[in-house]
């Protein structure tokens, strides 16, 4: 699927993400090195650090937040209405065209 991701410098990237590798969006961002190493995915995708926070433009493509995600976001910085933890979003074909911006560190 094709995703549009705006990095922390404001640069827009159009990237291809595989739906058959069990990846989540945080891992995609990491594998394309869209942010410096060590600044995303600090907790390893356990919804415990918020380093993978993103702002989602087309939220209607996503499922509801799970409880862990909701709780972590309630404690995180820079949270907006459309904040999500990208480690809690599996890459699936439903997400074709998803647009998101990586939140500040
Ligand atoms: Fe830690 Fe997503 S990687 S909350």
SSE layout and pairings?
Layout: E1 2-6, E2 12-16, H1 25-31, E3 53-56, H2 67-75, E4 83-85, E5 99-102
Parallel strand pairs: 1-5
Antiparallel strand pairs: 1-2, 3-4, 3-5
Residues 26, 41-43, 45-52, 72, 85, 87 line the site of FE2/S2 (inorganic) cluster (FES).
Keywords: 2Fe-2S, Iron, Iron-sulfur, Metal-binding
Pfam families: Fer2
Family: Belongs to the adrenodoxin/putidaredoxin family.
Instruction: Note the overall shape.
Output: globular
> What is the CATH superfamily label?
Beta-grasp domain
Q: Class, according to the CATH hierarchy? A: Alpha Beta
- CATH-defined architecture: Roll
Contiguous runs where pLDDT drops below 50 for at least 5 residues: none
Strand tally: 5
Tally of structural domains? 1
Residues in helices, as a percent range = 10-25%
Radius of gyration: 12 Å
Q: What's the helix count?
A: 2
Q: What order do the SSEs take from the amino end to the carboxyl end, as H and E?
A: EEHEHEE
List cofactors, ions and other ligands: FE2/S2 (inorganic) cluster
Largest sheet: 5 strands, mixed
Question: How are the strands ordered across the major sheet?
Answer: 2-1-5-3-4
* Class of secondary structure makeup: alpha+beta
Distance between the termini: 26 Å
Strand content: 15-25%
Protein name: 2Fe-2S iron-sulfur cluster-binding protein
Pfam families: Fer2 (PF00111)
Keywords: 2Fe-2S, Iron, Iron-sulfur, Metal-binding
Family: Belongs to the adrenodoxin/putidaredoxin family.
